[in-house]
Amino acid sequence: MNKCLLDYIVEAAEGAASPRIPHPEDSIFDGVTSATQYIKALIEVSKNPQSASIKWDGGIALFFGRNEQGQFVMTDKYMPAKGVYPTSPEGWVEYDRNRGANRADLYEKIALIWPGLESAVGNTPGLFKGDLMSIGVLPNIKGNFVFKPTTVEYHIPVDSSLGKIISGKVGVVVVHQYNGQPWDGKTGLTNAGNVAVLPPSANLSFRATDPAALTTAATAANGALARYGKLSDDFLAGLPKVVKEAIKQYTNKYITAQTKDSIDVWLRSNISNKQYQFLVGDNNDGYLVEHKEGLTALFAIWNAIYQFKVALVGQLEGQIQGFQQFINGKPGGEGFVFPSSIGLVKLVNRGAFGAAHFANQR
Fold first, then answer.
1. For residues 259 and 252, what is the distance between their CA atoms, to the nearest angstrom?
2. Which of 53, 61, 95, 234 counts the most CB atoms within 10 A of its CB?
3. Which residue range(s) make up the domain with 303?
């Protein structure tokens, strides 16, 4: 390898500590140039959907593998940035003790899956990234292995190819990356240990079921950018960064049903009085009113990109076979992840999965 294992760990940790994989629609808050790149990335995805991986709704992200000394290490996504690379389950306890934290419910889980993941890695050098989906031997419930890490409940038939991998294992981990690149589902890992290692694609290959609808959605997104782009950029140019972030947070909370307030009402409780006076004003004569066409333009572009993304999700969800996903008892999963020319792109229906996820946290 040209880079050492710890380089990969730090890079992965830094990516997770930043805005993770961004939502395509939020790119407009970084301006027209960024939004243009993400629309192009979504078009790439629509033309090459077979590269999709399912975005599994995991319980905790794990990095694991062998360092240059051949030691097996396992970390959460925050440890590497602090120079912590546990070589045993006890390392997790020590890490938490040193920072005054206690995740007592987690230590036993890490200890349980440690030998299984070490066996899965074998002598393979490098770093894998995955999500912990379940702990403990799963019971057969009406012919299915059923588990719910956070919001999505998974039903995997016992007699399916995935079910046969899971059978009798003490944990399930879906692996996404190997040395910072999408994992191909084969290289470097086996299911020889007591942990089931699953590929994110679940061995499925996706296609566009209605290419014309995706073309229409892409045209609408590009059209919104052409029509409203300058207005949106001019509007954002007049905003301090903290205020811009507040407006983005509002759009995120509105689409996930965390609020149904109008933006002026929501802002009153979520920004400083000085910022509120600038944006809204007691007489409703602030920046948002003076530049209402710019705010409308921003929201129009955001929505057009979002609708393009949702159109993609809708065509892919129906192609998942071999297992089922449910959100509050209704069919549906978290979404999908794609490699693109600008990096990984995630497709999450925030109005469905996001709303359910945050409702469950209340």
1. 9
2. 53
3. 29-52+207-361
